[in-house]
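Researcher: I've got a protein sequence and the SMILES for S-adenosylmethionine. Could you write out the 3D structure of the bound complex as structure tokens? I'd like something to compare against our soaking experiments later this week.
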Amino acid sequence: MLILGRNPAISIAEIRAKFPNSKICAREKEFAIFENLEKIDLKKIGGVIKVGEVFSHSLKFTPQKVYEFFAHEFTGKKGKSVFGISIFPENFATLRTLLVGSKKFLKNEGIASRFANKNFCNLSSAQSEFEILKKNGVEILAVHSKAGWWFAKFKSVQPFASYKFRDYEKTFRDARVGMLPPKLAQILVNLAVRDSKSLKIYDPFCGTGTVLTEAGLLGFENLGSDIDSRMVEFSQKNLAALNLQSDVFLHDAREKIQKKFDVVVSEGHLGPPRKTIPEPQVRAKIFEELKNLYENFFGWLDCRRVVICFPVYLENGVPKFFASSEILPAISKFGWQVRNTEKLIYSRENQTVGREIVVLER
Ligand SMILES: C[S@@+](CC[C@H](N)C(=O)[O-])C[C@H]1O[C@@H](n2cnc3c(N)ncnc32)[C@H](O)[C@@H]1O
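Model: Sure. Here is the predicted complex with S-adenosylmethionine in place.
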């Protein structure tokens, strides 16, 4: 069982790319149940919050299964046992029933326990890490849909502290070039490398080097360039701060490079930052410039797969105007086709410019 990040379609696409032999059995907004999923290392997957191992599936809600599972886990343990439960979609009343019911059941079995949930809310990633994993506790992930209830034993949680460190403690940042969250950069890399272990990655719009950093941390050789010498320097310094090697150089992506690489992974150039949706004429001009940029770039590109973001303007959080509608027809003449089956939109609350992630192959 996987508890997914805020953009579930993106999380699912990442898992499918990394684990092509896994089969999805159920999927809702916040979770997915997979069969044949190998052990997932959450340090290497950006779109998953928690992983659990399913121990029960039934059409009806069966709290007894939860109580008995805890009792089985804690039998013979010394001291007070710590447990927790998280339900998706979150439901305070059911959570309360399960927490209070479990405590009572454990008491009747002679097991002293306390639950880590506060105010009958789900456990956050930090609570799962510090209250459950660090204290040898047990958390149950309970998910439900029309297809019934699944209960799973929580196994691992995303390394939230190191993502935060790589994001906010980055040596050189520049809000004007936009800041790609490290998690999203990791997802972009995974969408491109799929289950390969040794591809060379190129980011032609590297900015402060987030993609290069994440590619390096995932063990992939990489190179990057940017048209802005300040960005080249920022990337070099950010990589050096983490002891990572990369070849970063000044270059206009519209022109061919002679260096070799296997795949392109990039946030791309998203056009000017915007607080509001541009008027139609301004928008047409921005999209035309982006089309020209990408037409030149894809025209010389000599590789098989590209994962890149194109800007999309959002109205009240809803994607409205896609730059890809101009760019994709222009690059299809070079043989580039979209391979992702679902639209993959990454946006944050109150953002006007979102990112449409496209996986292109030829
Ligand atoms: C959205 S930012 C990338 C930010 C980057 N992902 C990061 O984590 O900092 C886009 C970058 O594209 C660069 N850029 C714009 N036009 C370019 C071109 N023609 N060739 C190369 N780089 C370009 C900009 O200088 C900017 O650094």
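Model: Residues 2-158 form a domain with the VC0802-like fold (CATH 3.30.2130). The longest helix spans residues 280-300.
Researcher: Great, I'll pass this along to the crystallography team.
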